[in-house]
Amino acid sequence: VLAVSTHDDLLVFTDQGRVFKMKVFELPELPRQSKGRPLVNLLEFKAGERAVAFLGVKNFEAGSDYLTFASVGGIVKRTPLKDYRNVHKGGLIAVDIKEGDHLLDVTTTNGSDDILLATAQGMAIRFSEDDVRVMGRAAAGVKGIELAEGDSVVGVVKIPMIKDADGDPITANPAMSVLTITQHGYGKRTLVDE
Known about the structure:
The model has no long low-confidence stretch (mean pLDDT 90). The strands form five sheets. This protein has a four-stranded antiparallel sheet, with no helix packed on it. It has a four-stranded antiparallel sheet with strand order 7-4-5-10, with no helix packed on it. The chain has strands spanning 9-14, 18-23, 51-57, 66-71, 75-80, 92-93, 103-109, 114-119, 124-128, 142-143, 153-159, 161-163, 169-172, 177-181, 187-191. Strand 1 (9-14) and strand 2 (18-23) form a beta hairpin. The two termini are 29 Å apart. By secondary structure, the protein is mostly beta strands.
């Protein structure tokens, strides 16, 4: 669920690494009981392509925001948000996805956040987004986590950092927790500092 204004841009990212842009008001407004319209009727998806991430953007030039991409194969990429301001109707390559991999999720970061990747076998890694250099729009990215045989990334979380008086990130909110839920419904809450 996204909270957006009708004049915001909606970025739609697909599992094959492409991005589409449309105005929110271009989405059909339908009654509550309606099932909605398939995205393939609104955007030019390729055969078998599916949407995996959605972002509402008010201003592509504001601040120094980045898009941080994570793939199922553990590849991470960081690109300036402003590189996506001129997406045409047919879409653009947002990230170069290698064969056998696909895009998992995209999140906005501010340049000083931490990123947490979690895998299907219960492993996790947390690192500063600065550890991932800023790349161009069509770049493939770098390895964010070493995966065991048969493992895959299933979640990516942005952890906002608290800054000191000089504006340098020093720590996460000590009360912030990560909620982990398994495929069979077991859950646990862990402080991010752990």
